Amino acid sequence: MKKIKVFALAAMTVFLTGCVTTSEIKEEIETTPVEKEIETEKKEIKVVSISETFYNTLMDTDFILQSSPKRTSVGKAFDGSYVLRVQDADGNARTAFPITVSYPSSRVNDVITYATVNLVSNEDGLVTFTPSVPEYPFNDKVTFYATPDPSDQKSAQIALDFSVQSAFEVRSSTVFKSGVLFVWDMNEKGKATANSTAILTEFRNRGIYAGNAPVSDSSYITKSTAELYKANKEMLDGSGTAYLISGVVEFLKPVYEEDGLQVCELRAPLTCIDMKNGKILYETTVTNTATGKTYWYAVQNCKDELAKKFVDAVIYGMQ
Q1: Which of 7, 53, 183, 309 is the most exposed place for a label (fewest CB within 10 A)?
Q2: Residue 218 burial by CB count (10 A; 0-12/13-18/19+): exposed, middle or buried?
Q3: What is the tens place of the pLDDT at every residue in 177-229?
Q4: How far apart are CA 291 and CA 189, in angstroms?
Q5: CA 310 to each of CA 126, 155, 274: distance values in angstroms, whole numbers, following the listed order
Q6: How does pLDDT run across 150-169, given as a tens digit for each residue?
Q7: Beta bridge partners of 89
Q8: How far is residue 5 from each of residues 8, 17, 19, 119, 141, measured CA to CA in Å?
Q9: Which residues contact 111 (CB under 8 A, 6 or more apart)?
């Protein structure tokens, strides 16, 4: 009986040893080099990001501005619409293509706020944008771009890189009414010399009726806007004058020589005042740099160029 027990134990040992060997063989089969190679290939599959897909789409897309309205004035509707065509590289219309339009909507002096509207191209690939009647003057741009995915920051910059712009011009409705100027030329020492003839002439060349303010005392340059308004109001009351523009044309630094030429740098802070109530309609500062062979030519060139910027600022900035 004792011999039988020993035999049985030995048999079990052989059996268990056989099981372990079989398990090792199975494990070895399951991790063959072929399977490992397949797993490696799966890991190398490239996932294209949202921004890459967006970029590739725009690389195969053309935005063509077909028409734009002419400039208008505050309170007056544009004479037409902006029309954009969206097409692929072969010229075929892209339908139902999402487009965002950004345009100036309001302002406080030179701080402009922009509004956006989301549109979709029609069956002809056309996107039509008709602005509402403008309430503020602008000399700005309207921008058309593919609507980016809001969850992807890179797409926003990509959209702007492929954007199309057009002029968005709205003139002041006040500037072409009667106005007066209290704008003085200053010399290099900061003393007033005379009313700015360059700026007055530029206003008249643009078809804007303006004359020098009745108050001609240069001491008002350093007085408050309220004091200047009151002094002129008393003399202009009942004349129908709509606005007063005050300012100075001053040297940023003395005229200097550079590369054999005289260089002049000027600036002109300006304030537009409503002559009905003294309200400030617009404030800004324009600057300019010009050169000339002589001191006189440099200064005169700079004043003439500055005058154009000055009048532009008023036309497209005064409420």
Answers
A1: 7
A2: middle
A3: 999 999 999 999 999 999 999 999 999 999 999 999 999 999 999 999 999 99
A4: 20
A5: 39, 39, 18
A6: 999 999 999 999 999 999 99
A7: none
A8: 5, 19, 21, 91, 101
A9: none
Q: Which residue has the tokens 């010229």?
A: 91
Task: Give the H/E segment covering residue 183.
Answer: strand 179-186
Check if the beta carbon of residue 64 is closer than 8 Å to that of residue 92: no
Between 32-36, 133-137, 239-243, 247-251, the lowest mean confidence (pLDDT) is in 32-36
Work out the number of other CB atoms within 10 angstroms of the CB of residue 185. 21
14 pLDDT band (50/70/90 cuts)? Answer: very low
Task: Report yes or no: 73 and 172 within 8 Å, Cβ to Cβ.
Answer: yes
The answer for 91, left when phi > 0, alpha when psi is -120 to 50, beta otherwise, is left
For the question of whether the overall pTM of this predicted structure is more than 0.85, the answer is: no
Q: Tokens 């037409």 belong to which residue?
A: 80
Written as six digits, the tokens of 197 are: 């003839």
Neighbours of 93 (CB within 10 A): 15
Distance CA 143, CA 166 (A): 7
Q: Which of 47, 61, 46, 48 is nearest to 159 (CA)?
A: 61
Q: Where are the alpha helices (DSSP H) in 44-116?
A: 50-59
| Crossing angle of helices 153-161 and 50-59, rounded to 10° | 10
Structure tokens belonging to residue 127: 């996107």
DSSP H helical ranges for 31-49: 33-43
> Backbone phi, then psi, for 268, in 5-degree steps?
-140, 95
Report the half-sphere exposure of 211 (CA within 13 A, side-chain side).
Answer: 9
3-class state of residue 141 by DSSP: strand
Residue 164: closest CA among 215, 99, 216: 99
Contact 169, 120 (CB under 8 A): no
Does the CA dihedral 222-285-187-228 come out positive or negative? negative
Q: Which residue has the higher pLDDT, 238 or 86?
A: 86
